[in-house]
Design brief:
about 120 residues; 4-stranded antiparallel β-sheet; 7-stranded mixed β-sheet; 11 strands; globular; mainly beta
Amino acid sequence: QVQLVESGGGLVQPGGSLRLSCAVSAKIFSTYHMGWYRQAPGKQRELVAGITSGSTTNYADSVKGRFTISIDNAKNTLYLQMNSLKPEDTAVYYCNAHHQFSATTFWGQGTQVTVSS
């Protein structure tokens, strides 16, 4: 069983920045696609940013140019750097790991991000 533990959420003013971290309990980056999802109240969970086992990244249109997903293999940690935050970025952010050849998926517990003045 792989454990994903998010941290770094909080309250930030519009235009501010936050960096989310997802500590992973096993070395899986070579065989799992990793991603950050978010879910706002009353809305479906949506993919924000992803990075494949081959290090290809993709972003939701709403965050392109503002968010950056990255991996630190030495620390076994996934990151999401969020800049120029907007109130509509307010949501619970979840870390996800999906095996590249099977349906095996793991989720973190989520971290709240609130963008408000």
